[in-house]
């Protein structure tokens, strides 16, 4: 018996065919065919609301939670807030979940002397940055978090972002004073490099073994070549808005801005700005994550939008936070987490439908 293709199936097939036709090699064509399968799976997953469960972590911290990190295949959640607390949760297994409320947590009061603004990790070590001009490292153990080191920056103003490259054991932090500091986690408390590529505050960082990308209030994204030790390029994303978040993958970089637009850079072509898209968000984009199966964006408008990773992106589903503005988002192993005054987590009810998508 032949399956009748729905309008959604056809739109995905047609959208994917744009990439297949533009690909020159068999490898590229196979990649995009596999991507089409991933898109179909993600579309089915997010459109069927009973296939996902939503967990709420309520009243864990008393102020906005700006820093959010998923670890261990999405089973562990770390959050840092403006009340200076750092909180660790082990998300309950599906069998042990009695309700949609999660209460068990380990909280570190006064983890910093200022608002905690961003988090990253290298293996089981978490790095938190704060308005107190410091980065602190924490070892994640079964019972919670143990502080290891404090990295203090000799600059005025807050540290607004932190990112890491586990492959090279490096992490970097960006500051309100426009300076970016790079550290080797295996060595001492001093940065191995610092540079100032912007004329405005550094809002977000993304890094891999080769490059560090920084987004700034000066409306540019700067590309730092780690091997050459210099700024390779500065890209003006928009004359009207500033970049707020980034997702860097091997083939594409997605940048979300303060006017709810999404911009795509091609790292294989000197980070050329390929295209810009309007989204259905009504306020700035605070989080973006690109996978083979879907494109996820969060916003201060209180919504998460799931779209197809196609040209142009096609809307799949819209999720409501339930608590208003979304300050941060993370996605790992098919599990989505967002934060604002509370934390919400969506995960598939089936364990076999999301890995690597």
Automatic annotation (TrEMBL):
Record-linked Pfam families: WD40
PANTHER family (UniProt xref): F-BOX_WD REPEAT-CONTAINING PROTEIN 9, WD40 REPEAT PROTEIN 12, 37
WD repeats: 195-234
Keyword Phosphoprotein: no
Alphabetically ordered keywords of this record: WD repeat
Matches recorded under SMART domains: WD40
Protein name (record): F-box/WD repeat-containing protein 9-like isoform X2
């Amino acid at each position: 018996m032949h399956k009748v293709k729905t309008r959604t199936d056809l739109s995905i097939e047609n959208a994917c065919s744009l990439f297949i036709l533009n690909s020159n090699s068999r490898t590229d064509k196979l990649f995009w065919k596999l991507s089409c399968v991933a898109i179909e799976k993600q579309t089915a997953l997010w459109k069927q609301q009973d296939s996902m469960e939503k967990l709420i972590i309520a009243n864990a911290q008393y102020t906005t939670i700006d820093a959010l990190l998923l670890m261990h295949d999405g089973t562990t959640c770390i959050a840092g807030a403006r009340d200076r607390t750092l909180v660790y949760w082990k998300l309950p297994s599906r069998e042990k979940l009695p309700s949609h409320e999660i209460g068990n947590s380990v909280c570190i009061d006064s983890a910093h002397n200022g608002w905690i603004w961003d988090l990253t990790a290298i293996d089981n070590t978490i790095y938190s940055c704060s308005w107190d001009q410091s980065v602190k490292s924490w070892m994640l153990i079964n019972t919670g978090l143990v502080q290891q080191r404090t990295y203090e920056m000799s600059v005025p103003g807050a540290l607004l972002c932190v990112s890491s490259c586990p492959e090279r054991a490096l992490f970097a932090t960006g500051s309100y004073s426009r300076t970016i500091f790079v550290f080797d986690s295996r060595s001492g408390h001093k940065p191995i490099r610092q540079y100032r590529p912007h004329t405005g505050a550094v809002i977000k960082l993304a890094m891999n073994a080769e490059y560090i990308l920084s987004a700034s209030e000066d409306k540019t994204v700067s590309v730092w070549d780690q091997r050459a030790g210099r700024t390779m390029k500065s890209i003006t994303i928009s004359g009207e808005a500033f970049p707020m978040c980034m997702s860097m993958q091997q083939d594409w970089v997605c940048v979300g801005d303060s006017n709810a637009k999404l911009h795509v850079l091609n790292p294989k072509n000197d980070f050329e700005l390929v295209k810009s898209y309007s989204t259905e968000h009504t306020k700035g984009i605070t989080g973006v994550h690109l996978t083979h199966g879907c494109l996820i964006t969060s916003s201060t408008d209180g919504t998460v939008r799931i779209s197809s990773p196609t040209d142009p992106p096609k809307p799949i589903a819209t999720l409501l936070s339930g608590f208003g503005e979304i300050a941060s988002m993370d996605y790992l192993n098919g599990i989505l987490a967002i934060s604002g005054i509370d934390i919400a987590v969506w995960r598939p009810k089936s364990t076999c439908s999301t890995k690597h998508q």
